Amino acid sequence: MGGAGGGYEDVYARLKAYEGCAAAVGGVGKDLVNAPMIRHWCEALGDTNPAYAGAEAVAPPTMLQAWTMGGLSGHEGRSEAYDELLGLLDGAGYTSVVATDCEQEYLRPLRPGDLITFDAVIESVSERKTTKLGTGYFVTTRMDVRAGGEPAGTHRFRILKYVPVGRARRDSPVTGRAEASEAGPVAAAGRRAAQPGADATTPRSERSGSERSLSERPRPVVNRDNAGFWEGVSRHRLLIQRCEECRTLRFPWLPGCNACGGMEWDTVEAAGEGTVYSYVVMHHPPFPAFDPPYAVGLVELAEGVRMISNVVGVPHDRVRIGMPVRLEFERVDEELELPVFRATEGSEV
């Protein structure tokens, strides 16, 4: 990939110097592996595998990262090198971040009572890439997880630190800094409000091209595992995977069945009826593409699977658990439609 003068080359060389440095050393899980967390996880995902309950229970393998997370109190034990790497990217203007994917390898089951310890390393930093979200660098960390001192698994986590589409940037051959034209989403929102005739009540279709780019919704990450789902959405069909071996329905889309492990599947189309199983009302952080407060629901479809989406057609403070909703497809900009759930007539509780 071509660089943008000496600025890009300088930033990239400095980023690459962090490959192989520790991201965390001697980390300890805040909780022992325990049955209540396993139960809550399984209930949230609708996973009824008997291996995860009873006297001989093990934790679902995909909980590997859960036992290492810092929680609301934040990260502890993160290395100075990792903070320097993120600081370098922030200073170069790549201040936005999105998690893109993770890879896990399981070496032994985790059981209630296991003490989790871990180390992490900055495994790689990519060249500068241009994506639909914006331009930036992919940073991959590898975490080696131990249970009771024994290797239990490996977790690779990849983020993109980027400058969003629609925000101008420039490479300085003197400093190597890539600077955005605004300080961030709050500043962008302030600039939009200052434009005559362009406020939060202006319909999206009537806003200027530059303003629409600031307000564009983030793009969903489409990969080989979920491409069929998004292809269905483009045709106004909500498709649910079905295992060809045990006929278990699953959502979100996965490469294999979490009930029997089968790798072959087909799809069924959701009828579109559902109820609000749980929900949150989002107030923060502010972002130009959204207008808080708004309700995000965990919707249980009539077919039995659950999915996360917006609840529309009712004020955010009137959303209730058990509220019936109906699937519809909402066009949020010229390129993107998303499945949302509208409260049905007379459904307010």
Structure in words:
Residues 1-6 and 169-214 have low confidence and may be disordered. The protein is globular, with a radius of gyration of 23 Å. By secondary structure, it is of the alpha+beta class. The chain has helices at 6-16, 35-45, 80-91, 185-194, 209-215, 227-234, and strands spanning 22-28, 96-106, 116-125, 129-130, 134-147, 150-164, 169-171, 178-180, 239-243, 249-250, 265-269, 273-282, 294-301, 306-312, 324-331, 337-343.
How many β-strands, per DSSP? 16
N-to-C CA distance: 56 Å
Give the overall silhouette.
Answer: globular
Largest β-sheet summary: 6 strands, antiparallel
Class based on secondary structure composition and strand pairing: alpha+beta
Give the tags.
globular
Compose a concise summary of this entry.
This protein is of the alpha+beta class. Helix content is 17%, strand content 34%. The strands form four sheets. Strands 1, 2, 3, 4, 5 and 6 form a six-stranded antiparallel β-sheet that branches. A five-stranded mixed barrel has the order 12-13-14-16-15.
List the helices and strands and how they pair.
Elements: H1 6-16, E1 22-28, H2 35-45, H3 80-91, E2 96-106, E3 116-125, E4 129-130, E5 134-147, E6 150-164, E7 169-171, E8 178-180, H4 185-194, H5 209-215, H6 227-234, E9 239-243, E10 249-250, E11 265-269, E12 273-282, E13 294-301, E14 306-312, E15 324-331, E16 337-343
Parallel strand pairs: 14-16
Antiparallel strand pairs: 1-3, 2-6, 3-5, 4-5, 5-6, 7-8, 9-10, 9-11, 12-13, 12-15, 13-14, 15-16
